[in-house]
Design a protein that fits this description.
The chain is of the alpha+beta class. The protein contains three helices and four strands; from the N terminus they run αβαββαβ.
Length: 118
């Protein structure tokens, strides 16, 4: 759903604001899926990394661009990486993650699970 954050030499950074709402390809594409493919009251689950070398999706999450989705409910769950193979659910909020975005420790990453009901 998202780009590789510029690690690929053919990567093209998103225009200023995609569709005047979204700053990442991931949220723009997610919006298209929700609008075009999910039926009313349908459930869609997306997962994406937070705190990786690609900060575009972090930016979309922290700026609450999900509020532009035409859906009835959105729930977020965050998993914190404990070590190479262990993840644990963390009750951290989006605001707290946003505060930490410039303080990521090497090897400390989060996974966002976004549950969307149309």
């Amino acid at each position: 759903m998202d780009s590789d954050g510029g690690n690929n030499p053919q990567y093209e950074k998103p225009k200023q604001l995609l569709e005047n709402k979204f700053s990442s390809y991931a949220f723009r594409n997610l919006n298209r899926v929700l609008d075009d493919l999910i039926s009313d009251r349908g459930l869609f689950i997306a997962t994406f990394p937070i705190g990786q070398d690609n900060c575009e999706i972090d930016h979309s999450l922290f700026n609450e661009e999900f509020k532009h989705f035409n859906v009835s409910e959105i729930h977020f769950y965050f998993m914190k990486q404990i070590n190479e193979i262990t993840w644990r659910q963390d009750d951290i909020s989006i605001d707290k993650l946003k505060e930490r975005q410039f303080k990521w420790k090497e090897g400390t990453h989060y996974l966002c699970i976004m549950e969307v009901t149309k």
